[in-house]
Amino acid sequence: MSFVTDEETLPGSRIAYSVAEPKDYFALLKPRVMSLVVFTALAGLLIAPGHMHPVVALASLISIAVGAGASGALNMWYDADIDALMTRTRTRAVPAGRIAPGEALAFGLILSIMSVITLGVVANLLAGALLAFTIFFYAVIYTMWLKRLTPQNIVIGGAAGALPPVVAYAAATGTVSIESFVLFAIIFIWTPPHFWALALVKSAEYGRAGVPMMPNVKGPARTRLEIVLYTLVLAPLGVAPWLMGFASGVYGGVAIVGGAAMLVCAARVYKIRAGASADRAAMQLFGVSIVYLFALFAVIVAERSLALFSAGWI
Fold first, then answer.
1. Residues 6+ apart with CB under 8 A from 133
2. How far is CA 159 from the centre of its chain?
3. Which among 107, 112, 119, 295 is least buried, having the fewest CB atoms inside 10 angstroms?
C-alpha cells in the first residue's frame, strides 16, 4: 500500500493520507461509464417536449454526470477488497493504495450531495430526487447488497445505469413519460447480455473474488441461454422509439440492423461453448453490444439536435 503517515514529520501522529494524483481521483469517477451516462441522459433531455434553456440543460447534464461519477467512487470504495483480487481492477487507486478508502468514501459522498442539490436547484425537485435514488440504488442496493448476494445482480442493478434518460427528461419537464421509460427499458434489457458476455470470459476472476456472477452460479450453459433470451427481447425493443414516433426511420433502420447483429452474436455465444473460440465469441458480443447501444442513442441525439438547430433553438 502507498499510504503515507505524518509520523515522520509529526512525532506521535498516526494520521494517514494518500499520495494520489488528480488522475487517480478522476479514475474514481469511472469516466467511461460516466461518458455513457451523459450520452444517454442527453438523449432523454432531447426527446423532452418544449425548449430548455441551454445553461439549465448544461448544468443538468453536468449534475447527472457528477452523480454518476460519485456512484462510481462509492462503488470503488466499497469494492476495494474484491477489486484487489481481479486482474482488470487490482490497479485501481483504492486497492493499489494510491487513495485511502476513507478519502474515496468522502469524495463520493461530497459529490453525491453536490450533484443532487445542484440538479434540484437548477432543474426541479423531481429530477434531484430521481438522481438521489439512482445514486442510492447503485451504491447501496447494487454495490453493497446485490452484487455479492445473487447472480441476478446485473439484472436488478442495471436499473441504476438505465435511469439517466428518465432523470434528464424529468429535469427538462418536471415529469416522466412513456418515451423516457422506453429508453430506460432499452438500457435495462441491454445490460445483462452485455455484462454476461464479459462474465463468461472472466468467470474465474469473479470466482476468486467471490462475486456470484451468472456463469459462476448457474453455469456457462445457463448464462448463454439467458443471453439469447434477453437479446430476443432487446432486438424488437430497440425499434420501439421509431414505432412510437419519437425517432425517425433512420433510427428504425439502425435499430433493426443493430438488433440483428446482436442476435447473430448472441447465437454464436450460445453455439460455441469451449476453447478460445468461445471467448472470442463472447468478447465479440461484448464489443458489438457497446456499438449497438451507442448507435441507437447517437441517432436520437443527432436527429433531435438537428431538429433544434433547424428550429433555431441552437
1. 163
2. 9
3. 295
pLDDT digits (tens, 9 = 90+) for 178-212: 999 999 999 999 999 999 999 999 999 988 888 99
State the burial class of residue 249 (Cβ atoms within 10 Å of its Cβ: 0-12, 13-18, 19+).
Answer: exposed
Cα distance between residue 102 and residue 90, in whole Å: 18
CB 241 within 8 Å of CB 182: yes
φ/ψ region of 17 (left if φ > 0, alpha if ψ in -120 to 50, else beta) reads beta
Q: By C-alpha distance, which of 134, 131, 162, 126 is closest to 62?
A: 131
Q: Which three cell numbers stand for residue 32?
A: 467511461
pLDDT digits (tens, 9 = 90+) for 221-254: 999 999 999 999 999 999 999 999 999 999 999 9
Measure the CA–CA gap between 48 and 35, rounded to whole angstroms.
Answer: 20
Which class is domain 21-176?
mainly alpha
Which amino acid would we find at residue 292? Answer: Y
Alpha-carbon dihedral sign for residues 18, 22, 26, 27: negative
